[in-house]
Amino acid sequence: MSQLILIGGYPGTGKTYLSKKIQQRFPVFQMLSVDDIKEENWDSFGFNNLKEKEILNKKSIDDYYEKMEKHFQQKDYVISDYPFSAKQKDRLEYLVQHYNYQVMTIRLVADLDVLYARQKKRDLEDSRHPGHLLTAYHRGEVLSEDLRKNNVLEYNEFIERCKTRGYDRFSLGYLYEMNVSDFADIDYEALFSVISECIQKRK
């Protein structure tokens, strides 16, 4: 039985970093990222307002499920990161049941004030795709430092999203929760042991 690992939880918890760390330890897993797909679509099509951005984001989610299904048809091992919530659960649950996949959710949680500081720092970095911050974007646009600062998510809105969208309640299959308030305290080896056990049980 093939396996799907979903890395969920609040924004700013380091889901992408953890995905890459797991893939380095277990190269059998194929990476599938909603944000990567969004960024590709933003660059390919661009958007002139929030409505156009929302249409592209919906297309990106549809593209994500399509790619996931192709992986499942090929019986690939898949790892995917996103702030999953109830909005995605039914579709994901259908796919893993239809293709007889074993699924593990790694849910990342942390102090929300710590996460806001991390999220803000990330949004101000040049490597952060402008499409995450803007309501109008076309390929090649570069944000100045001031423009980035003006478009960073406000503290109250960040906290509201975290408290109301259910990022801390999502799970599918076997649940492994990690508190990442302090990255220095994370026991990656314990997590890798659990993943290894899950893989061995399903071979």
Give your account of this protein's structure.
The chain has 203 residues and is of the alpha/beta class. The protein has one domain: P-loop containing nucleotide triphosphate hydrolases (Rossmann fold), CATH 3.40.50.300. Helices cover 51% and strands 15% of the residues. The protein is built from 8 helices and 5 strands; from the N terminus they run E-H-E-H-H-E-H-E-H-H-H-E-H. The chain has a 5-stranded parallel beta sheet, with helices on both faces. The termini are close together. The model has no long low-confidence stretch (mean pLDDT 95).
List keywords for this structure.
203 residues, 8 helices, 5-stranded parallel sheet, alpha/beta, Rossmann fold, globular
Brief characterization of the structure:
Keywords: Kinase, Transferase. 51% of the residues lie in helices and 15% in strands.
SSE map:
Blueprint: E1 3-9, H1 15-25, E2 29-33, H2 34-45, H3 50-73, E3 77-81, H4 86-98, E4 102-109, H5 112-123, H6 145-151, H7 155-164, E5 174-179, H8 188-202
Parallel strand pairs: 1-3, 1-4, 2-3, 4-5
CATH topology term: Rossmann fold
The radius of gyration computed from the alpha-carbon positions, rounded to a whole number of angstroms, is 17 Å
**Strand order, biggest sheet?**
2-3-1-4-5
CATH architecture annotation: 3-Layer(aba) Sandwich
Give the biggest sheet.
5 strands, parallel
- In sequence order, what are the helices and strands, one letter per element? EHEHHEHEHHHEH
Dominant shape: globular
Instruction: Count up the helices.
Output: 8
Estimate what percentage of residues fall within beta strands: 15-25%
CATH class: Alpha Beta
Structural class: alpha/beta
Keywords: Kinase, Transferase
Protein name: Kinase
Pfam family, one: AAA_18
InterPro entries: P-loop_NTPase (IPR027417)
